[in-house]
Amino acid sequence: MSLKDSSILWSETRDWLERRDVHSVFYGRLTGRASRARLALRAGLAGKARRAFLASLACLAAASLTLAACGYQFRVEGAGPTVGGGAAAAKVNAPRLQIADFENMTLEPNIELRYTTYARREFSQSSGARVVAAGEPADLILKGKIVGVALPTINFSLQGTFEGRVTVTVMATVEEAKSRKKIWTQNIAASSEFFMTDDLQFNRVLQTRALEQAGRLVAADLALRFQNFMDLRDRPAQAPAPASGTPNDTPQAGKPGANGMQGK
Fold this sequence. Notes:
Blueprint: H1 3-70, E1 96-99, E2 103-104, H2 112-125, E3 130-132, E4 140-150, E5 153-156, E6 161-176, E7 182-195, H3 200-234
Parallel strand pairs: 1-3, 1-4, 2-4
Antiparallel strand pairs: 4-6, 5-6, 6-7
């Protein structure tokens, strides 16, 4: 390489390095300005949001003081609504109902305690009566018997069983606490389905859950029917309409007719 060629190459390299440095400095300045602009924008938005929040708090405080000074008060009387269908307000003259422990006449163990709990819960929420604990004075006593548990298969094939059903039958009676007179009797049946697998232990768990679901359905049905019974019982009796045996213009014996003459 000649000296002239070396001088030209060095000149071009120096020009390229100068252009790169200028570009780096210019890009760095632009990047720094953009970063500072973003930071300033964020700070401004945060300040505006903080000022708006403080202004809202000040308005709420001023409104509260104004209402308090004017004598306005917000007050809620009664139990109020309950999420999920809470207990309804009991009647003033609602009879006191005591629910005895259910009797288990089947081979399924330990289901009578759960069914008793379900019945007390449902009757406390909607039955037209006020449920009291055992040992307290009561006007009515509810007794229940679990008389049947059926486990039919509803979906099966040659390879095995895939789905089963639990059907529970419960007989309930309500009697007066003093006279022991039965005033209400019901036989309720409810069903619940469950899937079956190859694991026998897991199938037993699913069957127990289906038994519990059927017990909840039975308790809800009993409470609803007893409420309807109490509503019909408390409804005042209507006077029977007079029987129309003869036309209005036909004179009856001993009474004057339309023309003033007495019937024979």
